[in-house]
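tool_call: predict_structure(chain=1)
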Amino acid sequence: MIDKDVVNQLNHKAAKLGIGTNKVGGHNLFNGLRDQDGYDLIKEALDSNIQMIDTAFMYGLGRSEEIIGDVLQNYPRENFKIATKAAQDPNHDLKINNTPAFLTQAVDDALTRLKTDYIDLFYIHFPDDDTPKDEAVAALTKLKQAGKIKAVGVSNFSLEQIKEANRDGGVDFVEDHYNLVDREAETKLWPYLKENNIQFVPYFPLASGLLTGKYQPEDSSKFKQFSADQFHKIMTGIDVVKQISSSHQATVAQTVLAWYIKNPDIAVVIPGARQPQQVADNAATLKVDLSDDDYQMIDHVFSGI
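tool_result:
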């Protein structure tokens, strides 16, 4: 008989692993993308028990959502969650727009492209300069009450903008840049988010490949945002992760993703992928069960970078 606690643990971990899909249909962002790879990638994700698909209008100007919508028709809707984002106004040269009228239309358009009756999480992708953020969130709250979306999020908002957006308590999720080598959100955002029961979703969890273990100390020139001392500390941290990953028969990337999944302050981690095999490799993260000592060791070695 299967241990129910083990099943519950696996289900909890699976709920915290998603996929970022800017390389699904994102022809405006990346060269040489094939739609068929996007279709295959989403199928692989759903077949691998990845439960959150994170997309945006800006990924292919709606094409990513269309591909995802096509694939989802062959899967039970209740088995997965969809997060999407909008702010770039296609009728005004992609100028950032947070007005209630724009966001209301953006949700309807996304529902059409995704071929679904509801969106689990809808983010304002970027803040504009003019719209009061609480008014923007109020528009999405109305759509939440109408059942068109299940949760309201903001992405790339400063702390002050988050506070303004959450004036009436309407923000459920915040998505922002965070990974083991860029942990500013821990001190800048998390105290307010925790106090207000707002969930956090990091993007760039593998730091554009830096946290996959494929780079060497002599590659520091490829990461000019870090000083020589910082890059040395990062390489030292990756050596520690390599030791831990070896004990779990896992890759460095899987071990790093497992650290995010074990982190109680992270709602879901959404690594991107370009090929189905990368999705399968990410999904294998669910088999990596870091001990508390493993977690603390990784946390410590990457602190203070």
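agent: The chain is about 45% helix and 10% strand. Proceeding to next step.
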